């Protein structure tokens, strides 16, 4: 972990600095996609499912996909050529690398991955303007922030990550 990690306010400030229009709503803390959906169902767009994982060689992966995507970890492992199998990484690693807690996993955490230790796996629908907005937690699981596909690409470019684009069902 290098320096002070960016939290919600720092993230939202950085989005403004990057000229990214973000809509944020507050809601009760949620720990699963199923818990979040009732609070975001009225929003025009797609809520993201974010999975922080490691493979057999301890390489770190962050999957971002539509919340209703059918993610089969064995198939995903083959798609991205991960070593062995993919399984969820420990919360201590999540906190160290992305500055996040379980239940608040978000693509926005890449802003804290200055060493590029995490490989981003992104569902192709998130790069193809399929949804008016894509919604992620803004570093905490008590709010949701929406941005466009174009702004998502701008944010990822700013973090210096080169995503692996996959097509999930």
TrEMBL record:
Domain YbaK/aminoacyl-tRNA synthetase-associated, residue spans: 27-155
CDD domains in the record: PrdX_deacylase
Signal peptide positions on this chain: none
InterPro entries for this protein: ProX/PRXD1 (IPR040285), YbaK/aa-tRNA-synt-asso_dom_sf (IPR036754), YbaK/aa-tRNA-synth-assoc-dom (IPR007214)
One Gene Ontology term of the molecular function aspect: aminoacyl-tRNA deacylase activity
Domain of life, per lineage: Eukaryota
Family stated for the protein in its record: Belongs to the PRORSD1 family.
Protein name: PrdX deacylase domain-containing protein 1
Organism: Patella caerulea (Rayed Mediterranean limpet)
């Amino acid at each position: 972990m290098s320096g002070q990690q960016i939290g919600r306010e720092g993230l939202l400030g950085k989005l403004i600095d990057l000229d990214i229009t973000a809509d944020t709503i507050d809601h009760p803390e949620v720990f699963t996609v199923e818990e979040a959906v009732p609070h975001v169902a009225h929003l025009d767009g797609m809520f993201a499912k974010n999975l922080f994982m490691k493979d057999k060689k301890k390489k770190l992966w962050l999957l971002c996909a539509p919340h209703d995507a059918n993610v089969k970890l064995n198939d995903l492992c083959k798609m991205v050529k991960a070593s062995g199998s993919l399984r969820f990484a420990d919360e201590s690693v999540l906190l160290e690398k992305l500055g996040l807690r379980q239940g608040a996993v978000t693509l926005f955490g890449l802003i804290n991955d200055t060493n590029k230790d995490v490989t981003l796996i992104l569902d192709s629908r998130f790069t193809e303007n399929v949804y008016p907005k894509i919604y992620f937690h803004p570093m905490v699981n008590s709010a949701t922030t929406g941005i466009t596909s174009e702004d998502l690409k701008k944010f990822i470019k700013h973090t210096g990550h080169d995503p692996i684009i996959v097509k999930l069902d």
